[in-house]
Amino acid sequence: MRQPLIMGNWKLNGTKASVEALINGLKAPAAAAANVEVAVCPSVIFLGQVEQLTAGSAIKFGSQDADLHTAGAFTGENSPVMLKEFGCKYALVGHSERRTLHAETDAVVAAKYVAIQAAGLIPVLCIGETLEQFEANETNAVVEAQLKAVIDVAGIESFANAVVAYEPVWAIGTGKTATPEIAQTVHAHIRAYLAGFNAAVAAKVQVLYGGSMNAANAAELLAQTDIDGGLIGGASLKVEDFSTIIAAAAK
């Protein structure tokens, strides 16, 4: 049985006051959902504050990215070793916004994935297709290529200590959401593809849905066999909405 994981990606949002209100508001819902892992990924500048606020709570946290270097002359980057020191459990890698806005290739994503694991963090590998690729029926080929790039470098066994997040790029921030049936089909394909390398690892890896999951659609999405949680964007910035999603996962 895979434990549900509900993870908020705050993206470039937050103030000291909003971060405090959000964490404090989520403590009770996270504690009430004992069978669900609840995590947030704030902007790196808030990690110290989140580390302090979450102390003694059920809330875990991670970073939205990590550099592939642990130290050196890399201005503006954040080492996975530093992120670990601040209490991070997770680090997102390969988010569609990093791939598109920062031109991160599959090779760069794979290198970051390796660095994240080497530092003792759990990588949350984000994969997914654009609208053009979706309409051209290339979804399976795209997610396979993105997974294979990591498998080639890190090995299939590395997925025993990783999370996969399927994010159809066409459903992020657009208000469009893959139907539960579409999402389940892709999640099942991701698991089947990984099972072709190692069935035991594939059966245990958490595959999150990251395409505009919200309070209204969470229950139906989370009811699908191969959807093990959500990587939540906008809804994770609102205590009530995020709490509703956590409760849906607990059921």
From TrEMBL:
Its EC number is 5.3.1.1. GO terms for cellular component: cytosol. The active site is at H95 (electrophile), E167 (proton acceptor). GO terms for biological process: gluconeogenesis; glyceraldehyde-3-phosphate biosynthetic process; glycerol catabolic process; glycolytic process. One of its GO terms (molecular function) is triose-phosphate isomerase activity. It comes from the Bacteria. It holds the Pfam family TIM. Gene3D superfamilies: Aldolase class I. Substrate binds at N9, W10, K11, G173, S212, G233, G234. CDD domains: TIM. It is found in: Cytoplasm. Keywords: Cytoplasm, Gluconeogenesis, Glycolysis, Isomerase. It catalyses: D-glyceraldehyde 3-phosphate = dihydroxyacetone phosphate. Pathway: Carbohydrate biosynthesis; gluconeogenesis; Carbohydrate metabolism; erythritol degradation; Carbohydrate degradation; glycolysis; D-glyceraldehyde 3-phosphate from glycerone phosphate: step 1/1. NCBIfam families: tim. Belongs to the triosephosphate isomerase family. Homodimer. Involved in the gluconeogenesis. Catalyzes stereospecifically the conversion of dihydroxyacetone phosphate (DHAP) to D-glyceraldehyde-3-phosphate (G3P). This is Triosephosphate isomerase. It comes from Tolumonas auensis (strain DSM 9187 / NBRC 110442 / TA 4).
